[in-house]
Amino acid sequence: MIDETALQNMIDKIKVCEAEIGKGIIGQRGIIRQVLLAILSDGNVLLEGVPGLGKTELVKAISKVLSTSFSRIQFTPDLMPADVTGTNLIIKEEGNNVFQFEPGPVFANIVLADEINRATPKTQSALLEAMQEKTVTVGKTTYELPKPFMVLATQNPIENEGTYPLPEAQLDRFLFKLLVEFPSKEELKEIMDITVTNQKVELSPVINGDDIIAIRTAIKDMPISDAVMDYALSLVVATHPEQADAPEITKKYVACGASPRAAQAIVKTAKARAFMEGRYNVAFEDIQFVAYPALRHRLALNFEAISDGVSADDVIREIMATVKTV
Amino acid sequence: MDSKIRQFVYRVRSRIREQLVIDNLIKAVGIGMLVALIISLIALMIPFYYAIVFATTILMLAFLLGIIWGVRKTPNPMQSALLADSKGHKEKISTAFYLSGKEDAFSMLQKKDAMRIVEQFQIRKEFPIRVEWKRVAGMLILTLVFVITSLIETPAKREALVKHDVKQEAKEEIARLEKVEKELEKNPELAKNEVAEVKEQLENAKKELKEAESYEELSKAKERINKKMEMASKDVKDQTLAEMMKKAAQEGEKLAKEKEQELAKKAKEALEKAADGNEKDKEKAYEELKKLAEMTGDEQLAQAAETYKNATYSDNAYANASNALSQTTQKMQNSDYAQNNNSPKNQSNNQNSGQNNNTGNQNQNNQGQGNGNQSQSGNNQGKGSVQGQGNGSGGGNGSGNGNGGGWNYGGRNGGEGERNTNEDITIPDGEVGNDDNLTGKANGNDSSTKSKSNQSQTWSGNKVGYNEVSGKYKEKAYKKVNGSNYPSDMKERIKNYFDGLN
What we know:
- The complex is a heterodimer.
- By secondary structure, chain A is an alpha/beta fold.
- Chain A is built from 14 helices and eleven strands.
- In chain A, about 45% of the residues lie in helices and about 15% in strands.
- Chain A has a five-stranded parallel β-sheet. In chain A, strands 3-4 form a two-stranded antiparallel ribbon. Chain A has a two-stranded antiparallel ribbon with strand order 6-7.
- The two termini of chain A are about 35 Å apart.
- Chain B folds into four domains: about 1-150, no CATH class; about 155-340, no CATH class; about 375-465, no CATH class; about 470-500.
- Chain B contains 18 helices and four strands.
- Chain B is elongated, with a radius of gyration of 37 Å.
- The interface between A and B is medium-sized, with 22 and 24 residues.
């Protein structure tokens, strides 16, 4: 049975972890927190941002602090599925040729799928099973991935030539889509201080895989009142233009609303956020905090939205203004 | 822990309810007051007697609705908990309330966390009772305007009052008629066809009463009804029914007289009060005089009342009004006296007096019933269809007032008026022709006389019942039509016309 002290220890560990990652990554506090939320909620993250914002560094820093196995896959158009999942090799064993499975880079606790949109859909799809089922099937054999397992993918929103945009089905498997913004001037100065000098930042591991699994289990027990749950579900329902009481902006700009996975993502990550905040219950503000990263990649906007320059975040903002808490 | 949290949530809920009730009460009463004011304003222009009652009822309803609506809008306990949470407590209280009864580790920790907030939560401070003073001020202004408009006297209001009084009286009279109807129904021995006829008459009478809108109309309607009943008592063959109708007619007359006397008394009191009273007392006196004048059909009194008002209640006009009232009162007393003495015996003694007593000056007490045309100013206390010229001068101890208002010893010096010539005159049971058919001279002893005057004072005499007259005419018309060569359709139409006269 979980006691208050144990819970407090877990919360403390997460806070230390957050602070440690912050040492290596200047600024991007929101992104660090949201990545941690996804880790604690057993989800995958899609990081979107222009090159050079430290996306890959962030993932590396996280893997160091979490003290878990880490692998990086650089997605290119010629990358094959077997390059991701691993393949059966014919080897000689006691004079006979036998198949032996050689695990691919996906067999790690944290997998960095760098520039995931550069690989072909075939290769991208190789990650589908891993992301959702936490297994990999090669030939007739299914291999379980190590626990905890999560994919942190990055993509560049501006270089669209030669890229393969992720299909909706795959996007839906990402718990969060995080937008990595350009750092402020002060943050940029700090980045300079660390990166263009001989100053080195050493990151130490704070929690391991078992700790993460224990925290995930605790978070799942976090109570959420009916009213808060109702609010979260109302937000998801409000993204569907076919609903009679959908907000005007949804009816105007959304082609297809968020899936039930969005509701799961919101509730799971809201619990994690409450936990990180040191609370034992989920509040409306937790839902509001996680609504953007959980919903933005799940809303399919129509042409009108694109032509009007309306983003998914704009729609979510308006929905949150419409759906009342009390 | 659970009960403490629950108690806390209910306390918050009560506090929210108080605020909602106050808010809704102010809104509802404000709207109610606005509606009441509109009604009150309408009543200034359109006669609406129940305006104040109606407005007050609306206000009371608005008050009740405000409370009910406030209570109805009270949030449920969970919403109350959420409202408490909205004071920066991150849904701790509502979650604890939701977890009521759950005892797992997380739930217990959560409730413990919520309890820390509950213990420090100051409901009165977090949920202060706020009154929207702007709305209250608006409501007070509306109330003030409403009170003022309610106090303003306008002709429409006076008219409404009169109409209401008339309707009330009409109701009383209708109730009396219904009583008579019930009595008729109770008695199974009465002739059914006659009862049906009488009941039809009573129904018509009730309709007539309902339609009366002024004292004058009411008074006339009452008089007609009483006469009809009296005539009905004569027409019906059933003795018991005749007695009942007669009794009802007498009772009706008595009540009408009582009402007139009551009005006269009120008018007198009001006039006395107006002598040194304020404008309102004077207006009241005018109203009472007018009412009495309408009820009695006394034009002189009506004129005096109008003069009294138009002369802005001057002393002179007051004296005139007072005098007119005295005369009206006197007339009423005389009429009573005449009625009291109008026993069948007296009637039989004076039945022909109208035809025979019209010669010369007279100072006699003609207490009877007659149909003669008299020109007299004497102490004639009788009932008759008198059309006369009163040029007599009040002498002796009488208080001579105006033209022929002499009392006690007035002389009858009426002269013959100018005859209208070339005028068709129908003599009962006679021929239709011009006034040469009238063989008598005015003030003479002939069978029929005529005199005309604009200056006579007359007392209302016995009137011939409408039914009697129309009945006879109908009978005659039937006879003539049946004996004529008119087309049958035309005959039917003529008959229908006469049938419709009743």
